[in-house]
Design a protein that fits this description.
Blueprint (H helix, E strand, L loop, with lengths): L12 H13 L4 H8 L3 H13 L3 E6 L2 E9 L1 H21 L5 H27 L4
Antiparallel strand pairs: 1-2
Helix pairs in contact: 1-4, 2-3
């Protein structure tokens, strides 16, 4: 069975993470993508350029602000993103195969709660100035 570490699409971890984030969130401004990836804009620019050359993402005009652009998955990028989600789903199914339905439900609830708390913490810390 394939695992997340065994995605064999020729892309590095950071590039696969871009595909995952865009697959989950849809088109994003480069600044929002940088925030989601917890990295700088310069790094996102390099990642996006590499993925554009491979035909996995492209930039489109932001329909809400003609001065801005969005990074969007191409059909091939969508396909690779779906592969990453599928592999992740398979991994979770394998890891929880001997759990009861109630245990899976509790875990799902707690993981969602943890994810919300982590996002809130990240927002709070990223907007708190250093002393």
């Amino acid at each position: 069975m394939a695992h997340g570490s065994q995605i064999n699409n020729g892309l590095d971890f950071a590039s696969n993470k871009v595909l995952y984030v865009l697959g989950r969130s849809g088109p994003l401004r480069p600044s929002a993508l940088a925030e989601q990836l917890a990295t700088g804009r310069a790094n996102v620019s390099k990642l996006v350029n590499r993925l554009e050359l491979r035909g996995l993402v492209h930039k489109v005009k932001d329909p809400h602000d003609a001065r801005a652009s969005l990074v969007e998955l191409t059909p091939l990028g969508i396909e690779l993103s779906r592969d990453a989600f599928r592999i992740g789903d398979e991994m979770l199914r394998e890891m929880t195969a001997d759990w009861s339905a109630q245990e899976v439900s509790i875990f799902s609830h707690q993981m969602a709660r943890f994810t919300r708390a982590a996002a809130e913490y990240e927002r709070r810390v990223s907007t708190t100035p250093f002393p």
